[in-house]
Structures are given as structure tokens and as C-alpha cells.
Amino acid sequence: MAVVAELGETVSKLRQAYESSRTRSLAWRQAQLRGLLRLLKEQQETAFEALHEDLGKHRAEAYRDEVGLLMKSANEALRQLGKWMTPEKVWVPLVAFPATGQIVPEPLGVILIFACWNVPLGLSLEPLIGAIAAGNAVALKPSELSPCTAKFLAENVGKYMDAAAVKVVQGGPEVGEQLMEHRWDKVLFTGSPRVGRAVMAAASKHLTPVALELGGKCPCIFDMMSSARELQIAVNRIVGAKWSCCAGQACLAIDYLLVEERYLPVLLKVLKSTMKRFFSDADAMARIVSARHFERLRNLLKDREVAPSILHGGSMDAENLYIEPTILLNPPLDSAIMTEEIFGPLLPIITLKKIEDSIAFVRAMPKPLALYAFTGDAKLRRRIVEETSSGSVTFNDAVVQYAIDALPFGGVGQSGSGQYHGKYSFEMFSHKKAVMKRGYLIELTLRYPPWNERKIALMRHLYRFDYFGFVLCFLGLRR
Amino acid sequence: MAAEVARELRASFAAGRTRPVEWRAAQLRALVKMIEEKEGDISAALHADLAKPHMESYLHEISLAKASCTFALKGMKSWTKPEKVPAAITTFPSTAQIVSEPLGVVLVISAWNYPFCKSMIHCSIDPVIGAIAAGNAVVLKPSEIAPATSSLFAKLLPEYVDNSCIKVVEGGVEETTALLEQKWDKIFYTGSGTVARVVMAAAAKHLTPVALELGGKCPVIVDSNVDLHVAIKRIAVGKWGCNNGQACIAPDYIITTKAFAPELVDSLKRVIERFYGEDPLQSADLSRIVNSKHFNRLTSLVEDKKVADKIVYGGQTDEKQLKIAPTVLLDVPLDTALMTAEIFGPYLPIITVEKIEESIDFINSKTKPLAAYLFTKNKKLQDDFVANVPAGGMLVNDVALHLANPHLPFGGVGESGMGSYHGKFSFDCFSHKKAVLIRGFGGEATARYPPYTTEKQKILRGLINGSFIALILALLGFPREKR
């Protein structure tokens, strides 16, 4: 009960901070972003330690996927903030002259951000950058499954940023539920579809708008490569995208691979050699986040129908929560490993007669967060873009699209709704208010009752912006 | 029946019928044709449902609907073109673009007050126009409270548009509930906050995104520094010339200073008489209340003597015709229903404050409205208003017009809703902006991959920070790897 009361107080303090207008000025927003940059610079080593503690993440991965990207985003936001905050002028029809129209971005108010455990720093701070840039007060709820990072955030965010308007709330699902009892001006949730449903249902009670970043099974369509060099590069990228992204525990990681059956032997050979090269070192790959997830992944493999399809790898170390990079060949399509998001270092390969069949295959599954395709065939590329739907599509690489600020990041259908990164983050946490101003100079009396046929005739001309016709009609020279 | 409709639309969408731009344009042109050919029928239905004057039907529904179709027809080519965006040094060489694709099969539930508009035009046809322009299949559920318009839709639409992809489902709570149980790719709802919560909760089960166009108490601040006669005319037509106050963006209440109130009330009386004559209940230019349930809801708002005593003009009602005359009240107690709930009718309370600046705090003490209005020539007050009053949209020195500008997003915030539409915003409302990145094999940065040596990490840092030098090094194959 103490927790409930405490949470209630945190929420109302945030609202007070927002109502006091302290988060509105450009200066405040810039100060927060600079504070965040200092945090990431000065506490970088501690951050790496926390990520390593929580996930066994190598510092290179931690920099590449989290810290480095965050610093890039914060710098970009600082650079663009003035531009993003400037109202956009819009065209106003002559009939309304004199008048001006603009779209004014304003903050929504008090934001709640739920972060997932796999990219714990990135998924809390990247949205935070957007929410702050838009002038809101923010509550961050990091996942309890990444406790060291949660603690890191709780200890540092208040020190480097305005503690009255940016707060970190630690705890498990009960705390999350309690937080959702309150009204927020927007909630961003990154996590599983199951919890996403619960968050949206809770939000509906207060009509709180939500953005949901969910996962999905991100397919990788692998077409014939035209040279050995390209094949090697493609496989480098696939192996990197699957196993060097938090051991496959990433919403953007490649979930499964689709390839033509005649091409399989060549692919497998290069896959295995590359995997050996990349992961010769035990600490090159992150570990599984928790015993529960380890069990979940173990069960995917233990399934009697699935076990025979293990082609490579498969060994597990329960004590160290380590699962060897594993390849499976054609597990049954109705098995859990092919219906649920894997979120682990297991890669099923499904063979097809023709690579074009991959389009129908992907369409039969729920829309994923990302779709990958390695192909030099422009026609196939066009068909993939036009005939499939996903949060994003990347050709000849994987996961890197996350680093491009100009591209919106987000899902569609079961993989979520709402997009952020770069200016999309700013927009996600803003309301675009339409503002129109008129003067008293010109007054169109035909708007007013009592109405008659003549007024309607005049209006017809005006609404078609047929000013000449309007004048004629007005002068009685036309009906 | 709802399941069948959803299934059929899903099959049509999956077959790709709604994707070609030619199909979308053909549907929109068919809608324009329908509006032009059946203008008389539409007006008659609106009159049957609401006693809506022909002028209002034309102004607010028919012409705006046509204008929306035309705007979408003109804009569609550029809206459907992919948007190229700068890729980053980090992923050099690559090209990046954003492709708008339809969400799939969408459900549009419309409100009763602007039944035609709300279903096809502006408030509602506008969503349907947007959905079609964006390449979706659509189900429209018109409001059952405007039955003549609802059945007109059900009858007319199949005669003009592709029935396998655009359907009308009529009905009340039961049919709507059945529809809400199906899986849609987006739900667009116009109506009240109470029902919106039910819609959003139902959508949550399928993770369906929603756009909610709700109402609120739209305040009008009237400063003494105005051209009063013009201001009052604009307020009056915005209030009573829009379905007799039954509009989400109609002025709900006025705030002015104690000193200015008497002059304002006088002007209102004169203007109302000019517009509607001495006996407004007899005016053909005044809509009636939609049904007896709402009629009773409205008259009960002024039953309380505390409230009735504050009537300074109007107050006449005709229960048989379901008509209520334009009514002005002064200084109604703030804790009464009239001042706490959205009125949605012809009552116009005036609240007075000492200084006009206090009106901003007053508005902010209530939930965020769909629209907020200010009449003043004082630039500072205008700036203060825009900067400090959160609202869906705002208008200075006029009322409601912003909804006719297709370049302005129309929608609420907070209790007044989420999501916006009109013009290109309707198209965007029903689109998914898919990020597409195309890379080549030219630039291969081995620095990204394990094993992570110190050398690699240095280059990686540089790459992420957009360093050109790091890029060159990476492209040249540094660090050299031992094979």
C-alpha cells in the first residue's frame, strides 16, 4: 500500500512540475538534453558494467546499439530542436482573407515510458529524448528484468537532469499496473503483444493515447547472391543481426530465414564458418536474460517435433544462461518456434521451391516489425515492398535501419502502432495544434441567417474558389 | 453479419483491389457524382433527421464533402509517392525512403450530428475519403440516431462505389458491438468520451490503433477590444447556425469581463433576433434537436431554478417539434450540469471574470477542448492564448472555420480525442509509413562484427558518430582481419 501511495505522489509531482510550465522553454529542453549527454559520457563505464551485469553484453555491442546511438540522437535533437518547435505556416483560402493558418506543436503533458529489458538503456532514453524535446514531464519505468540498468537510471537520471520533471520508477509488473491506473497524456510501451493489450486496455479508461512497440517474427528472405564476396558479406550481416544483437533477444533481430532449397548447402557452409569466426570468444555473445527465458527457449528446442530439425549448435549452459548459436532446418510450421517470436539465439531456416514463394509465406504471418531481404533482383524487391506489410523493410542488411534518424521506427498491425526516432520522436510526444487567425476587415454576410437560395448560389461559387463566378452572381449577372 | 462483412473486405483487400491509384480515384469520383446527383435526396434526409436548413446542409455537409473528394483526388498522386530521405554515413552506401501503404480494412463509426458530413463528408466522409485515398477497404457504420441519413447511405453507396471494398452497415448498439468484436486495422470513431472508452477497450484486444474524434466544452473568450457586432455574428452563426449547437466545435460557453458582459448580451439579443426573427421556434433556419432523449437531456439542464433564473434571452421550447430557441444565460453557477458537461445544444452560458487574462486559467481548469476561440484585437492576449491553452485547434476572431481548411489537421487532444484528419491528414490517418532501406554490398564495415578488438571499436565509434574518416577507413577494409 505504501508503494501505491508513493506512486500516486510521484505522478502528481510530475503533473505539478508540468503545470508549472518549467518544461516548456527551449532553454529547459536544451539543458536536459545536454545533461543526458553528460550522463552518457561521464557514466559510460558504469553503463557498460550495468549492461554486462544484466545481459552479458559486450561493451562494443553496448556502444554500437545503445550508448553510441543515444549520444547521436541527443546531439541531433539539440541541433534540430529550434526547427521542430517552430510553428508551420499553412495555406489559407482566399475566401477567408485576411487570415493566417499555422500548426503549432505543443507538449502533451506528462508521459509514461515503459522500457523493455533487452536494450534497457536505449529503449528508455531514446523515447525520453523525444519526450523532453517536445516539452513534456516524463516518468520512466525500466524493466525489472534488467535490474542493474534500472538502478543505473534511477541513480543518474535525477542527478544529470531536472529531477522534478523527469523521474525513474523501479519495480515489476505490479508497479506497471499501478502506474496505468493513473491518467497520462501518452504512454509508450515497448514489449510483448500480450502486455501491450493490457496496457492499451488500461489506457482506454482514461482515453490516454498509446504508442506500442511490439515485436513479431522478423523474416529474412535470402535470394541467390551473385558472387562469393557478396555471399560472405550477406552472411556476415545476417550472423551479426541475429546473434550479435543481444543473442537474438531483439525486436529487430532476424527471427527466421527463407531460402530456396537448392541454395541451402552453400548458405549453410558460409553460415557455419562465419559463426565460428565471430563467436570464437565466449564473451562475444550476450547471454539469456533470465532463467525463465532460458527455460522458454529450451522448451522451444525440446519440442519432440522440433528437436530432429536442429542442424547446428543446440548446446546449453543453464548455470551461465548461455545457449549456443543454433540453426534449425524446416521445423514444423505449427510448432511454437515457428508461431511465437523466438527472441533468442535460435535460427530456423525454411526452404522453398522458389524464392518468390517467400512473399506468400510472409503474408500469411502477422505483420512483423521488420522484414529483411537479401537480393539483387529489382523486381523481387519491388514485389516485396508492394505486396508485404511490415514496420520497415531493409534490403541487403539487417537492423541498421535503426540507426538512421530520418527513418521512422515502429511497427504495424501486431508489431505495434506509433513511430519514433529523430523528429518522429518529437512528434510522437507532441500535439499538433491547428491555429487560425482572422481579422475583421472583410465580412461575408452571406454566411448568416436568414438564408435564401441566392445566398446558397453565392456560396457554391465561393466553395469552388470560383471568385469570378462569385462576383458575377453577386452582381446579379448569373444565378 | 459483422464477421461476414469483415471477412469479405479482408478478402478484397488481400486480393489487391484497393491498391491501384486508378481504383482509388474512381471511387472518389463516384462519390463526387453521388453527391452532385443526389444533393436533393441528401438535403431531404438531413431535413428529416434534424430539420436542417437547406443552406446548412449545403454549406457544412454537401459542399465540404465534395471539396474533400476533390482535394484528395488532386493530392493523391503526390501523397502516394515514396518520400526519399537522407540515409546516414553510418550505412553508406544506401538509399532510404518512406513508403505510405494502406493499413488494410478499417472501420469508421460516425456520429449523428453531422450524419452526412460525419459519414462521408468532412467529419465522416472525410475519414472514408481518407481511407479510400490511402488504399484501404472500409466499413462505414452511420449513426442510428439519424435514421433517414443512415438508410440513404446504405441505399446510395452501393449504387456508386465498389461494393466489395466499401460497405455500409446500419444498426444500433448491438450491431456496433458486433462490429467492434472483429479485427480491424484501424477504427475511426466520432462521438462521446464514454463510448470512445468502450471502442478503445475493444480495439485493445486486437491491438487495433484508433482515432477518436470527441467533443468537449469549446470556450469562447470575448475581449472588450473587438469589433463587437462582427464578433457576435460569427459566434451566433457558429453556435446556432451549426445544427443549433449540436456540433463538436460549436461554442459551448462564453467568457468575458464583468464590465463588458452587458454590452455583449445586448449585442447577442439583437443578432439572434436578426437571424431568427422574434419567434425563433418558427424560423426555417433553425435545426431541431435530434430526438426526444436529447431534447429532455437539454431541457433538464435548465430545470433547476438556480439555472433558469440566469436566462437573459430565449428559453422557449416546443416539445412536439423538438425545437429549442437560442438561449443565453449569464453567470450560471459553475457546479451545475450546464457548466460541467458538454452542452451540445442551443444554450449559451456566459461566464464573467474580473480581468480577461483570468479566462485562460479558467479554460485550463477544465479538460482540453476540441476547439478554443478568442475574439480580440490585442496581440499579446492572442499570443498568450495560443501558447498557454492546450486544445485540439484554435481560432482567433472567428468560430469553426478551421475545419474547412484542408491544410490544417483537425482533431482533439486529451479528453477531446486523439488522431487528426482532413486533407492529407486523413490519408495519413489510414496509412502506415513504411521505412525502406536499400543497401548495397559496396561498403562493408567489418568493425561491426565480433570479435570486438580495440581497433574495431574505435572505427565503430567513428561510424556511429558519422565521422567521414571512420567511413573511409571502414570502406578501405580497416581493421585488416587475419583469416
TrEMBL record, chain A:
Residue spans crossing the bilayer: none
State a single Gene Ontology molecular function: aldehyde dehydrogenase (NAD+) activity
Q: Which UniProt keywords apply?
A: NAD, Oxidoreductase
Where the record annotates domain Aldehyde dehydrogenase, the positions are 7-435
User: Active-site residues?
Assistant: E213, C251
Origin, by domain of life?
A: Eukaryota
Q: Return the InterPro entries for the record.
A: Ald_DH/histidinol_DH, Ald_DH_C, Ald_DH_N, Aldehyde_DH_dom, Aldehyde_DH_NAD(P)
Q: Quote the cellular component terms of the Gene Ontology held in the record.
A: cytoplasm
Q: Which reaction does it catalyse?
A: an aldehyde + NAD(+) + H2O = a carboxylate + NADH + 2 H(+)
Alphabetically, which GO biological process terms does the record hold? aldehyde metabolic process; response to abscisic acid
Family, per the entry? Belongs to the aldehyde dehydrogenase family.
This protein's name: Aldehyde dehydrogenase
Species for this entry: Eleusine coracana subsp. coracana
Q: What's the gene?
A: gb14824
From TrEMBL, chain B:
Query: Domain named Aldehyde dehydrogenase: which ranges?
Result: 10-436
Q: Would you tell me the Gene Ontology cellular component terms?
A: cytoplasm
An example Gene Ontology molecular-function term: aldehyde dehydrogenase (NAD+) activity
Q: Which GO terms describe its biological process?
A: aldehyde metabolic process; response to abscisic acid
Q: Which residues form the active site?
A: E213, C248
List where the protein spans the membrane. 459-478
**Top-level taxon in the UniProt lineage:** Eukaryota
Q: Which UniProt keywords apply?
A: Membrane, NAD, Oxidoreductase, Transmembrane, Transmembrane helix
What InterPro entries does its record include? Ald_DH/histidinol_DH, Ald_DH_C, Ald_DH_N, Aldehyde_DH_dom, Aldehyde_DH_NAD(P)
Please write the reaction equations for the catalytic activity of this protein. Answer: an aldehyde + NAD(+) + H2O = a carboxylate + NADH + 2 H(+)
- Family statement drawn from the similarity comment of this UniProt entry: Belongs to the aldehyde dehydrogenase family.
Q: What is this protein called?
A: Aldehyde dehydrogenase
Q: What gene, per UniProt, encodes this protein?
A: ga25164
